[in-house]
Write a structure and sequence with these properties.
Elements lengths: L6 H19 L5 H22 L4 H27 L5 H22 L11 E5 L5 E5 L11
Antiparallel strand pairs: 1-2
Length: 147
């Protein structure tokens, strides 16, 4: 699937993995925070994947907005873990940094300049050799020069 080749997908997966490391450090009695962190990090990942395939920019922005809100919640959950001294400072800092990075990336995706809701969606995907390439909604790579 094309969404799996995006930088946003990779970073949201890293966010979930960092949350899992933090959760493993939580002392007894922090199940409420573990549940919250699992929900908001997986919501980022799922809403991005769902939004990626939406037919219109308006629908896509809606799902990306949900993902952005969930990433902000994840950041707050990492803050909560830090406030209760429930996880290592480095893990908390990594989780917050990843959440911020995902918010920034998704914000760029959802606020592309000069796009109309009826225009096809253009996405950046990672090629097999690791380079970034634009792909249209139909999955064809765009050529340099805009054609």
């Amino acid at each position: 699937m094309r969404h799996e080749k995006t930088f946003v997908y990779e970073r949201s997966l890293a966010l979930m993995q960092t949350a899992q490391v933090a959760i493993k450090q939580f002392p007894q009695g922090f199940g409420f925070l573990a549940d919250q962190l699992r929900r908001n990090t997986s919501s980022v990942h799922h809403n991005f994947a769902e939004g990626y395939y939406q037919e219109s920019r308006r629908q896509q922005r809606r799902f990306f907005g949900y993902a952005i809100q969930s990433a902000r919640e994840a950041s707050a959950s990492f803050d909560t873990a830090a406030a209760f001294d429930a996880a290592d400072e480095q893990i908390v800092a990594r989780g917050k940094a990843l959440a911020l990075e995902v918010v920034r990336m998704l914000s760029k995706f959802s606020t592309a300049q000069g796009r109309q809701d009826s225009e096809p969606v253009i996405r950046a995907v990672r090629t097999e050799d690791g380079r970034s390439q634009a792909a249209s909604k139909q999955g064809r790579a765009s050529r340099p020069g805009g054609s």
